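Translate sequence into structure tokens.
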Amino acid sequence: MSDATVLEKLVSLCKRRGFIFPGSEIYGGLNGTWDYGPLGVELLRNVKNAWWHDNVTSRDDIVGVDTALIMNRMVWKASGHEDAFTDPLIDCKTCKARFRADQIAESQCPKKPSKKPGEFAECQLTEPRKFNLMFKTFVGPRGEREHGVPSA
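Result follows.
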């Protein structure tokens, strides 16, 4: 059984049992986001606590911090995120799927899972292009102060 099949079965089980739901599902959904049901919240908390224990509490050379995700743009620029936080992506114009260019050899065609993207006759793949993983964000009651990085 492939890793993708195992993951699909695990996600399906989690959805049926109320652990997770696609984000905003009752309003059409929002790709890449998940909402957690009562059991999912508990599982997430347990995973976070185990990670924190193993990577922070039990070590003498690590300290924990918690910072805001929305920061002054200069923080993102100084950290290198503004220039380097991108992935090379390829789109299929037929099925509307998106693939990381550097992982396409391990990917499956959504319309023909036995094939790789581009191997199925109906595939229409675009050239790889850089996709900025950061979002432009405005802060304040009138959205005047810009933070984050504009998406490419």
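Note: The longest helix spans residues 38-57.
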